[in-house]
């Protein structure tokens, strides 16, 4: 039962934006904070906190997700890649080592996570038209496991993305997927 719950949780954490041909004005770039009251987690507790960091990268987009689960355990996972249809390494994702990214339209993208060539989960992320809300839906074995809602964090002084990491991780150093 634990693996059945842990796997979908980690997959949902790993995906937030399908990597794409990113431009500096791409609305997915920035820092996103989970809104637990607006989210639905099926057969599991919501995390205490989750922050998603999306940055432009020469290979597409770099996604880094920092989560503190309901038991207070901190995890970090992510990937770097683009929506070329190829597989890209995912790190920190229990039960999956690759992710295939596809942009559906400017506001919707999907990621398919695989282990040993077999699909183990799929996420679809939808960005609001105004670029301030991100919804990530996770399916596992064809069943909806969660619908998580995130809000873009803005610095009220100059209306730019916040780079502070509430979980205490240095956000100024690039994250590189382990070889």
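^ structure tokens above, recovered residues below v
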């Amino acid at each position: 039962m634990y693996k059945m719950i842990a796997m979908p949780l980690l997959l949902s954490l790993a995906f937030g934006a399908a990597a794409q041909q990113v431009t500096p004005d791409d609305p997915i770039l920035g820092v996103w904070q989970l809104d637990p009251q607006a989210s639905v987690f099926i057969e599991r507790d919501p995390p205490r906190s989750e922050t998603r960091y999306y940055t432009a990268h020469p290979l597409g987009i770099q996604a880094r997700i920092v989560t503190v689960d309901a038991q207070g355990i901190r995890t970090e996972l992510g990937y770097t890649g683009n929506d070329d249809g190829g597989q890209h390494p995912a790190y920190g994702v229990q039960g999956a080592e690759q992710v295939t990214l596809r942009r559906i339209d400017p506001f919707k993208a999907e990621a398919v996570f695989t282990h040993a060539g077999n699909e183990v989960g799929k996420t679809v992320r939808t960005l609001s038209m105004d670029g301030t809300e991100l919804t990530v839906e996770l399916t596992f074995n064809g069943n909806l496991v969660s619908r998580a809602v995130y809000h873009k964090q803005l610095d009220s002084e100059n209306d730019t993305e916040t780079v502070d990491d509430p979980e205490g991780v240095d956000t100024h150093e690039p994250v590189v997927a382990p070889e």
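The mean pLDDT is 79.
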